Amino acid sequence: MGQLIAVEGLDGAGKNTLVTGLVERWTNAGMRVATFTFPRYGRSTTADIASEALHGSHGDLRDSVYAMALLFALDRADAAAEILAARGDNDIVILDRYVASNAAYNAARLEQDVDGEVVRWVHDLEYGRFGLPVPDRHVLLGVRPEVAMERARSRAAGDASRARDAYERDSDLQLRVDAVYRRLAEIGWTSPWHLYDGEDIDALADRLTR
Ligand SMILES: Nc1ncnc2c1ncn2[C@@H]1O[C@H](COP(=O)(O)OP(=O)(O)OP(=O)(O)O)[C@@H](O)[C@H]1O
Ligand SMILES: Cc1cn([C@H]2C[C@H](O)[C@@H](COP(=O)(O)O)O2)c(=O)[nH]c1=O
């Protein structure tokens, strides 16, 4: 059964770029690799509704922390069978955002720590009730929040379809999300976490397959 690796980090941190680089290296080394990116925009109605809410639609939906978390969780629940099948067919399944995104963003929204109620709720809902597989490892792309926020800003400036959403425009939230992610990594939430500073992707690719 393939290894399940979740890549986490702030909006604009460079997760997608990192995942692309890792997949290229592992594929060139002869490994079979599958990728899932959450939220699954265009494939999941609940993911699309969450995104629309973050861009100002659906009334006061985005004000509800638990409703937003549930929409993202339902997207993943719908992908559970596909992830399990991919794990059977590949050496590595890499997830660009996963359950820890829900833990980090919603603890940050509620100004709770990792031992708070919402992190426990996300865990029980997604790993318990929905039966999502727990990653073997997490990677936290821990670039400085100012760097991630600047990347998200420039991306939006260069591409109208990537306009920043409510979370991306909220720099206090981004700082709190960064702090929660670092605590999740410190305590090894659900599995070991690798803190990656964005410097040496070859070394990271090796470390994750050792
Ligand atoms: N190492 C890097 N150096 C400079 N720019 C980068 C680096 N990695 C990514 N970027 C740029 O930063 C922006 C955000 O990158 P990317 O889309 O990979 O981030 P992300 O973490 O997946 O974002 P999101 O979660 O918001 O979708 C992009 O414009 C990308 O080209
Ligand atoms: C998967 C997931 C995402 N979020 C947050 C993180 C982002 O700010 C937005 C949208 O994600 P994207 O990567 O910028 O497209 O939603 C979340 O709160 N919970 C989740 O499970």
TrEMBL record:
Catalytic activity, as annotated: dTMP + ATP = dTDP + ADP
GO molecular function: kinase activity
Keyword Ligase found: no
Pfam families membership: Thymidylate_kin
Enzyme Commission number(s) from the entry: 2.7.4.9
All residue ranges annotated as the Thymidylate kinase-like domain in the record: 7-186
Keywords noted in UniProt: ATP-binding, Kinase, Nucleotide biosynthesis, Nucleotide-binding, Transferase
Flavoprotein listed as a keyword: no
CDD domains, per database record: TMPK
Function: Phosphorylation of dTMP to form dTDP in both de novo and salvage pathways of dTTP synthesis.
Family the entry assigns: Belongs to the thymidylate kinase family.
Protein name: Thymidylate kinase
Taxonomic path: Bacteria, Bacillati, Actinomycetota, Actinomycetes, Mycobacteriales
Gene responsible for this protein: tmk
